[in-house]
Write a structure and sequence with these properties.
17 strands, globular, 442 residues, alpha+beta, homodimer
């Protein structure tokens, strides 16, 4: 790759070695920055020969330690894989290098009125390769699905340097097992994604955003049911609570959105070819109060009450952050029992929850108990799985949750996953120990 | 399962032993018809102990020999798994037994104005379990995706009888490798699907169908591009050619749709909340002629020109039938070269092609050469793969195309697939020899 693309200086390597959350860091053996697939393959062959562990890294915006090196690992940074191939307008598809950021792709596609219908707050850092490797979600997933729903092909380098390339973008190809789907969400443990072919959607020009005030989360489900039935323009439906709203208003110095307080708030985003705000009238009489905006500045002002939650929570201290999901119809039960369990374990804790209503994805933040005390984490994850939920809705397992994977997957499933890992990476050098828990010594 | 659910009589077992196409049949050891997951598990445990090969079977409407037994295999019929669980209206999901037919599901959901957005001609026979196992496609796949896009969870019995159940229907669950996606399309070689949780879409009440006449397939791509841009109600866009139209009109005694002949015809189906036929005006000046229908009877009449193609071809003789796909933008090149190659190999052959324009899925029918002469088949599959296409777009590999899989997948991919098969079914008893080609003895 050239000597200048191999970083051994610890100070220079720091941004590759410390994650955003401040929870994970390591001293990598070195950071290597290949420029194309051939170099990625050569790097992996060398590492395989030397039996050195390799951790592929995109924008390093992950939350689960899946892309942060431990001591002695080689960081394989994919950020230089910056190619954007010509747009295929007939198929509405594009092939891009793994290192292209979501934001760069969005800007590239805007003149064509097209977009990848996956979006999230880390768009300036997160790379398309990393988003495929982690099956990224976000607020649009309820409507459009996660990354797996939009990846039409991958180029992947295996642990031993062999390359698989399936980039012609076929929508129909029932020719054996779907390796592409399996690699998506495998967090760099089965192969290194170097190029991604994406299916795109047409940008809908007319937008409307509503902030809805509700008495409780049960009524939010009624809004969701109505939206399914009568609001085809719905793109996102997120929720937050009064406690979070108050904290955001104080932290960001925002005015309260409504004259009085409400227990639960929904932010609803709609997009269509013609003004979608008329569709929102279906909620009259169902909600306690509402604000609707159609211009960009006003829409952003409404979204700030939701988007400001994460920043506000992080500014209040180091929270226990848990990204769980439960079946949508069980959300009221989950949130009710969550409050009780957290109050039992940590009576002084402050609980701030928000998330994506449409897919039951709840971001749980617990402030107060020291982060080393994992009792609240265990309680939240056990509660979610007891209701058929997930211990990681969109952030993945990485290092952060591997110990808890047995809560969410049976021994049979874990055995199959280990066998899949062995099939792809028999030497166990690719992102070792991420996702899969240690084998029970018994 | 009870003695009456074990069929050993050859006459009774015949429908389980001979496939629709007439190409595959065998003398199964017996046919066993379990009533629920526990019985499926017990049957598989018994077969594992006896080291007998098992072939899972749904509606037996597959086209690739993936569900037809060979001599001495046990047919595991899933048709008695007929449960339909209560509809989850909040999540717009339903869980059904593997043996429920697509048609039965459609009828069950109609009163709720919901549907599984996958449909095809074999709806009265094909089961939901079989459709998941084969990742069924059809005309709506261009718009809505194939089965993999709609399965929200599976219950699966492994070859040794262990059961995996993941049916809570989470839209977001990044907890390790996605076993569900891998099992979909694995054609019963990795596990036996016993229950399926499906995501549903709202039925759109207003429909419009157009039959468009075009000078060539290149102009059809221009129609597709325009449709992407300006016809958001588009659900399906299928094509056929003059030769096929003439044969259908003669066979089904239909009038010619237009006053004069055209080279290529598109059938376009639209669905929306309000009359979608106005959107179709974008094609004025782009097509040579057009018919538009909005009532059910007239729409069906237009579709008959397309839907009658398969029946008509089968009535003309035993055709070479190849279900391939190519990248959409390469369709004109594929169809042009196809004509040349077939004419070279079999100058007297009649070539009838039709398919799904939006996803490049071409059903190639070659009449004339005896079916044992596979030279035209090889030529078609080689042409498709040379253009980055698929040797099986929606029918799967089964027994029919396993020998040709190396045309479409590299040795690296085939080795990974074999390793996956070993991980799930180390004894090789589940649908043996389907999908994967024999190892090269060299």
């Amino acid at each position: 790759v050239g000597a200048d693309q191999v970083v051994t200086d610890a100070a220079v390597a720091a941004s590759f070695a410390h994650d955003l959350t401040g929870r994970f860091s390591g001293r990598p053996l070195l950071v290597v920055r290949p420029a194309h697939t051939g170099e990625v393959s050569a790097v992996l062959r060398s590492c395989a020969r030397a039996a050195v562990a390799v951790i592929p890294q995109g924008g390093h915006s992950g939350m689960a330690g899946g892309g942060t090196p431990r001591d002695g690992e080689v960081v394989l940074s994919l950020r230089r894989l910056q190619g954007i191939e010509p747009l295929d307008q007939t198929a509405q598809q594009i092939t891009v290098g793994a290192g292209v950021t979501l934001e760069a792709l969005q800007e590239h596609l805007r003149p064509f009125a097209l977009a990848l219908p996956v979006d999230h707050g880390a768009r300036s850092a997160a790379t398309i390769g990393g988003m495929a490797a982690t099956n990224a979600g976000g607020a649009l997933a309820f409507r459009h699905g996660m990354m797996r729903a939009h990846v039409r092909g991958l180029e992947v380098v295996l642990a031993d340097g062999r390359v698989i390339s399936r980039l012609s973008g076929l929508l129909k190809d029932n020719s054996g097992y779907d390796l592409t789907s399996l690699l998506i969400g495998s967090e760099g443990t089965l192969g290194v994604i170097t190029r991604v072919r994406l299916g795109l959607e047409r940008l809908l020009p007319r937008r409307a955003t509503a902030l809805l005030a509700l008495p409780d989360i049960g009524q939010a489900l009624e809004v969701l049911r109505l939206a399914h039935e009568s609001v085809p323009s719905l793109q996102a439906i997120d929720f937050f609570e009064l406690r979070g709203l108050r904290r955001v208003c104080a932290h960001l110095n925002l005015p309260a959105p409504f004259r009085r307080d409400h227990e639960v708030y929904l932010i609803v985003d709609c997009a269509a070819r013609s003004d979608p705000s008329e569709e929102l009238e279906v909620f009259v009489g169902v909600v306690e109060d509402a604000l609707v905006a159609t211009d960009l500045a006003s829409r952003r002002r409404l979204w700030l009450y939701r988007d400001g939650q994460n920043e506000t929570v992080n500014a209040l201290g180091v929270p226990h952050k848990l990204d769980v999901a439960v079946p949508v119809s069980l959300l009221p039960r989950f949130l009710g029992e969550l409050r009780v369990r957290v109050a039992e374990i940590a009576p002084a804790a402050e609980l701030i929850v928000y998330g994506h209503l449409g897919d039951g994805n709840v971001h749980v933040n617990i402030l107060g108990p020291p982060v080393e005390d994992v009792r609240v984490d265990v309680a939240v994850l056990e509660l979610a799985t007891a209701l058929g939920g997930s211990i990681s809705a969109e952030h993945g397992i990485g290092l952060a949750k591997r110990g808890w994977l047995p809560l969410a997957r049976t021994e049979t499933e874990l055995a199959l996953m280990r066998a899949l890992k062995d099939a792809f990476d028999p030497a166990g050098l690719l992102n070792p120990d991420r996702i899969l828990p240690d084998l029970d010594p018994g």
